[in-house]
Amino acid sequence: MDKNPFQPDDMWKGASPQIFSNAKKLRENQTAAEEKLWLAVKNNQIEGYKFRRQHPLSIYIADFYCHALKLVIEVDGGYHLDEEQRLLDEKRTSNIEFQGLKVIRFTNEEILLQLPEVIDKIKAFIKIMS
Question: In the sheet that 60-66 helps form, which strands lie side by side, from edge to edge?
Answer without folding.
Answer: 52-57, 60-66, 71-76, 102-107
